[in-house]
């Protein structure tokens, strides 16, 4: 999971520190050279001196491969520009904006920035929820690591919820083996209908893992 954070103030600094401690790949961008140098002393080479509200700056930060972009400056207008560039120009799946004025929350939502948060811990929690929602958990690898046994918990908005297994087209090298529903273990059959909170147990090749994830979990709403 790669997170680009724009804005090296207290919120950006502590968010970067928190995510680094959780083993995320992070780049923290700030357009103040002296501040960037101080941050680099604290956080290391993940800090970059660049304009985070420009295409060039975001490109240098590797935004084209980012999973999440966080606009953490103290200026709501800058944060809106950063999020819109990240989502529309670089196709970053998830954009999170810090807002100083709660009245701007509706404007951000109307312009496609679905997550607006004020505090460092809240932003970190939002990223954690996003990651958990889109992950498959590997239970076991076998056949020289070519095959994996996976589990995924379905949310209410998962694309396969309320569908029977016979209605779901899986990659050729994937199969759903079991469905765990509360304390019940259901053997996967064509007429098994998936429900929210079901834990799906599947077998897949390594190369089809991402396709299986998209089918079961979709792309989180952004």
From TrEMBL:
The keyword Transcription does not apply. Gene3D superfamilies: NAD(P)-binding Rossmann-like Domain, Regulator of K+ conductance, C-terminal domain. GO terms for molecular function: potassium ion transmembrane transporter activity. It comes from the Bacteria. PROSITE patterns: RCK_C, RCK_N. GO terms for cellular component: plasma membrane. Residues 137-218 form the RCK C-terminal domain. Keywords: Ion transport, NAD, Potassium, Potassium transport, Transport. This is Trk system potassium uptake protein TrkA.
């Amino acid at each position: 999971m790669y997170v680009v954070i724009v804005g090296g103030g207290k919120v950006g600094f502590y968010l970067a520190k928190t995510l680094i401690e959780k083993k995320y790949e992070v780049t923290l961008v700030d357009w103040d050279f002296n501040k960037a140098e101080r941050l680099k002393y604290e956080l290391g080479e993940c800090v970059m001196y660049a304009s985070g509200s420009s295409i060039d700056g975001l490109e240098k930060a590797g935004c084209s491969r980012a999973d999440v972009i966080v606009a953490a400056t103290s200026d709501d207008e800058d944060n809106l520009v950063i999020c819109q560039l990240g989502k529309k120009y670089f196709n970053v799946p998830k954009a999170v904006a810090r807002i100083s004025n709660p009245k701007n929350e509706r404007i951000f939502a109307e312009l496609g920035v679905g997550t607006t948060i004020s505090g460092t811990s809240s932003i970190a929690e939002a990223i954690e929820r996003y990651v958990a929602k889109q992950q498959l958990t590997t239970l076991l690898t076998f056949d020289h690591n070519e095959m994996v046994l996976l589990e995924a918990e379905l949310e209410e908005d998962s694309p396969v919820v309320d569908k029977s297994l016979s209605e779901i087209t899986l990659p050729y090298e994937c199969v759903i083996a079991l469905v765990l529903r509360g304390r019940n273990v259901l053997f996967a059959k064509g007429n098994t209908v998936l429900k929210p909170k079901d834990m799906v147990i599947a077998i897949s090749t390594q190369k089809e893992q991402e396709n299986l994830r998209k089918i079961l979990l979709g792309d989180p709403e952004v």
